[in-house]
Amino acid sequence: MKRTVLITGASRGIGKAAAAAFAKAGYNVAVNYNSSADAAEKFCAELNCSGFSAKAFKADVSVRSQVDEMISGIRDSFGSISVLVNNAGIAEQALFTDISEEMWDRMFAVNVKGAYNCTQAVLPDMIHSKYGRIINVSSMWGISGASCEVHYSAAKAALIGFTKALAKEEGLSGITVNCVAPGVVATDMNSHLSEEDMDILRENTPVGRIGTPEDIVEAILFFASENSSFMTGQVLSADGGYIL
Ligand code: NAP
Hints:
With 244 residues, this protein is of the alpha/beta class. It is 48% helix and 16% strand. A 7-stranded parallel sheet has the order 3-2-1-4-5-6-7, with helices on both faces.
């Protein structure tokens, strides 16, 4: 039976690369997006033209009613979801003293509440089928902390706590909950950084290069596989050795 995966924030970057990999691995792929409708629809059309199974679903993951509507649409199209990748995220650089309440709340709304909303919406089906894989995309900054990114680092650290606590709660239901902590990856999220900044980040990465979305996808696929059933509550760094 074909399994269904929901990848949040799959219109671009790491989520898009993950969606392509899951499609090639034989999953029905629900591609969530928020603002990039054209990109998501075009991407799904390309996957379907290549014989894969994908559909785009709009939802701001921070809004529960939109998430519930999305999950019900996915159920109608593909049946229940057995793999959830909480990937949708935003980042922002600011001095801590300049982080407004609004900036703080938005950071947590997308990165943390988004994972809460999506996970709570898919869990009943996973519990019912006694199988599930939940993979949260954190960041190396959630482990080590980044200067001028206190709200981002705190939100990504929260996802690690979320992962560990939920792993304990859902283990007996056949559901694993794991976390991937990427290093610096060449996506839109880093497009504001200067070449000089990227060079510094590259130099501080032991393998001597910036990551690709595909580098992160390998770790996500590992946690999604049936063979990783004895691993839960783990944080797997895919960062070229940046955090050691
Ligand atoms: P990206 O290229 O900026 O893409 C972000 C994705 O998240 C887009 O598909 C965007 O969808 C979606 N998104 C943003 N807000 C959303 C919302 N409210 N609801 C639903 N979707 C939303 O980012 P990326 O680099 O691929 O990052 C993916 C994940 O990896 C994030 O969680 C990020 O924090 C994490 N990460 C990235 C890096 C890095 O260096 N790139 C490093 C560590 C961790 P729309 O365009 O449709 O709005």
